[in-house]
Amino acid sequence: MNSRADQLKVFFLPFPVSGHMIPMVDLARLFAMHGVNVTIITTPANALLFQKAIDRDANSGHQIKTHILEFPSAQVGLPEGIEYFNMITSHGMSHKLYHALSLLQKPIEQLFQEMTPDCIITDMFYPWTVDSAAKLGIPRLVFHTAGYFSQCAASSIKQYAPHLSVNSNADTFLLPDLPDTIEMTTLQLPRWVRTQDGYDQLMGRIRESERQSYGAVVNSFHELESAYEEHYTSITGIKAWSVGPVSFLNKFSTAKLIELAHGLDASSHRFIWVVRQKDKDQVEGWLEDFETHIKESNRGLIIRDWAPQLLILEHQAIGGFEGATAGLPMITWPLYAEQFYNEKFVTQVIKIGVPVGVTEWRQWDEGVTEWRQWDEDAREVVKREEIEKAVIFLMGSGVHPAEMKN
């Protein structure tokens, strides 16, 4: 690009839930760092979550900005400032938030018409944007926060319904038409797949809009998922670009954190644990007590908020982690969404993971969403003994980490 006049103008439309919004904002920043003129469409409360980072990028000379749309809180009966799903506390608020998002469709489409971007990149949960882009004659790219494998696995289950052929929810079945032999149980599938509820209809609209899109941007990289990258493009019929990994937020409930802490401690292996400073769990006192204990035993280190992640992961003393980009084996603890698919990829395809033992898909822990049901008492919490066994196995009692990485 020879001048700012030649810059591509790309609009980004993130979905207001942390696990989708944070990766898309990071994607938008990445585009801006490579010379693209970027506009992120958002609302006032959502902008507060990442505006400082955008301002820093802009002050560094990158062409990136937010375009703030007024959020129709009063129209739908939501309290001021409740503009993303991590903040809602009831089913009623969830419905109102979805209603508010639907009311934003017209002003967003009007913005597209007035500012004439060269391309729009939107979250999968805005299927209507494919028609908006078509009217303007510009490409719409869908952004997937999850990798290719989970898309392919979900497509296999949708097309072939292998879970309907087993006798019980705990019986295993094979996922047809995938490059690898993958086994799952019905309990590991999202609830909307098992029950065919209204959310399944939304997923159908999302899949159709995906096929009509110019292409997809996927939070992955070619070296990790080359076979599934090719399989994805063959089953969707669209182009795909691997741009990742970009960040992802995955929060645990207090009960899960406590079991994780004591499981790490009981494993007798030294560990580093990064904990966000604002976590409510710290107020309850257990984390401070645990931190005192591990200091006395000289077995672990708790780091508050930010840590030099790459520096830590690349150190030769590190034997395991919860991510693949540093070439380390990991323990898998799926919770919701596509995370059981991710576990199958890690444990059955690239074979660098040890399952911690979760057997059933559950609704999202943090916040309440349209598809969440009130089953707090039935939530599966992995016990510290299972975590201890997984850590010991990962760190050498079973398969040596170097063997797993190969």
3D structure, described in words:
By secondary structure, the chain is α/β, with parallel strands linked by helices. It has helices at 18-33, 44-47, 51-59, 73-76, 91-103, 105-115, 129-136, 148-160, 191-195, 198-212, 222-236, 254-266, 286-297, 309-313, 339-349, 384-397, 401-405; strands spanning 9-13, 37-42, 64-68, 119-123, 140-144, 172-174, 183-185, 215-218, 239-242, 271-275, 300-304, 330-332, 353-355. The protein has 2 domains: 4-150 and 187-242, 3-Layer(aba) Sandwich (Rossmann fold); 254-405, Rossmann fold (3-Layer(aba) Sandwich), CATH 3.40.50. It contains 17 helices and 13 strands. A 7-stranded parallel β-sheet has the order 3-2-1-4-5-8-9, with helices on both faces. β4, α7 and β5 (140-144) form a beta-alpha-beta unit. The two termini are 41 Å apart. It comes from Quercus suber. One of its GO terms (molecular function) is UDP-glucosyltransferase activity.
